[in-house]
Amino acid sequence: MPLRHAVSTLTLTAMSDAAPTAQLEDVDVILGGNHILHRIRLTLPAGCVTAVIGASGSGKSTLLRLLNGLVTPQAGTVYRHGQPLTSERFRDVRRDTGYAMQQIGLLPHLSIADNIALPLRLAGRAPEAIADRVGALLDAMQLSPELAARYPAAASGGQQQRAGLARALALEPELLLLDEAFSGLDAITRLATHERFVALRGTEIKSALLVTHDLDEAARLADRLVILNAGRIVREGPRDDVLTDPRDPYAIELVEAFQCAD
């Protein structure tokens, strides 16, 4: 059966000799007495978009939070740029990490432009540099200067989502974390946002980890797929390899549902 919704404009990034953006080695996470992640071994290659797919409660968001130092594993090691992620490195690593989520989190009392500029101001960038960077991001996200002067409540959901993504990219992070970042959008707006994401690959967007429950979205946007079930990785690899040879029973069920959705 042919793969559905393979995006022709998505060019898989060639693997380089660069060190992986992040790695998890035999990571266990226990929260509130619940074993959330079990012996996770995962590498995020530099220059790739990796999608983690799984049902609600499978541990997807916890995986993201591990990479940002917001969750500490009970066992195993998280690496960023080849070095263990320790408390002493949290501040630097977070500056090198963009984070966008479904709730967006734009501050309602700041304009769209000021929301995008906020990370740059907190990082102590010069006003001229902030203005240049915000202008470049507005252009990249196809947000007009008129819209940039408005408050978030005066923008559409898709515009707010693109502004949130621009804010996550403000400091030119090496790793962009996306936590169900597009799931609150209607179908047409979501597709348009996907196309903007693809257009920014290799320029504004370097490496990314996309968490989603939607295999269709993952197939549109990612180079590599990771299927998570009950806190365990049951299948991972290049996108087309996983979709044509899912192997694991849960992964097979997920892929069959994806292929039959038409």
Q: Would you spell out the secondary-structure blueprint of this structure?
A:
Blueprint: E1 22-31, E2 34-44, E3 49-53, H1 60-67, E4 75-80, E5 83-84, H2 90-95, E6 97-101, H3 112-122, H4 127-140, H5 145-148, H6 157-168, E7 175-179, H7 187-199, E8 207-212, H8 215-221, E9 224-229, E10 232-238, H9 239-244, H10 249-260
Parallel strand pairs: 3-8, 3-9, 6-7, 7-8
Antiparallel strand pairs: 1-2, 1-4, 4-5, 9-10
Helix pairs in contact: 3-4, 3-6
Overview of the structural elements:
By secondary structure, this protein is of the alpha/beta class. It has a domain at 22-96 and 173-260: P-loop containing nucleotide triphosphate hydrolases (Rossmann fold), CATH 3.40.50.300. Helix content is 35%, strand content 24%. It is built from 10 helices and 10 strands. The strands form 2 sheets. The chain has a 6-stranded mixed beta sheet with strand order 6-7-8-3-9-10, sandwiched between helices. Strands 2-1-4-5 form a 4-stranded antiparallel beta sheet. Helix 3 (112-122) packs across helix 4 and helix 3 packs parallel to helix 6. The longest helix is centred in the middle third of the chain and has 14 residues, at 127-140. Residues 1-16 have low confidence and may be disordered.
